[in-house]
Amino acid sequence: ITLGQLLVDIRYGTAKKCGYDAGAVGVLRIPNVQLGEISIDDLKSADFNDDELKKLRLVEGDILIIRSNGSLDLVGRSAVVDKAAAGLLFAGYLIRLRLNLDLAHPEFVQLYLRTTETRALVERLEKSTSGVNNINSTQIQQLPISLPDIEEQCEIVRLIDIAFAWIDRLRSETTN
């Protein structure tokens, strides 16, 4: 199927100028999307009205995708919103995917977006203007995804988490 068939909402982030301590609400940007996870270490903020908050507030399980950057390697990078990032908003160089959770496990979809095949497709789809690489929401919705049933998705995520934990232990032991 296509990724778009799994979505209940897809949305670009805010274009409002943000700064450090510039408002009441934190805004995630490209540097906050790192290796499949959200980092809230370097957070900017701004003030928003109720309508903007309603449209742009992140919930746990949303997926953020970098849609525009000078570095092709960053375009298409994704991360799942966790409890710490829930309630924050997101900047315009990001796209939020809100999944139908009856059909798709957010971690499974995010891992699928990181596969070699999907990365290669994103790199073929991206367009460059003035040295900035872009992928749009229509292209993202058209990305193909092989989707097993939700129980199998959960099991695949569990097994991958175990494998990554094992790799991290090996790395730590090697360093020691």
Structure description:
By secondary structure, the chain is of the alpha+beta class. The protein has 5 helices and 12 strands. The protein is globular and about 40 Å long. The N and C termini lie far apart (45 Å).
- For the termini, the CA-CA separation is 45 Å
Strand content: 15-25%
Count of helical stretches = 5
The helix-strand sequence is EEEEEHEEEEEHHEEHH
Query: How large, in whole angstroms, is the Cα Rg?
Result: 17 Å
Please tally the β strands and state the result: 12
What is the overall pLDDT average? Answer: 94
Largest sheet: 4 strands, antiparallel
Global geometry: globular
Structural class: alpha+beta
Outline the low-pLDDT stretches. none
Helix content: 25-40%
Q: Write out the strand line-up for the largest beta sheet, numbering strands in chain order.
A: 1-10-6-8
Question: Which terms summarize this structure?
Answer:
single chain, 176 residues, alpha+beta, 5 helices, 12 strands
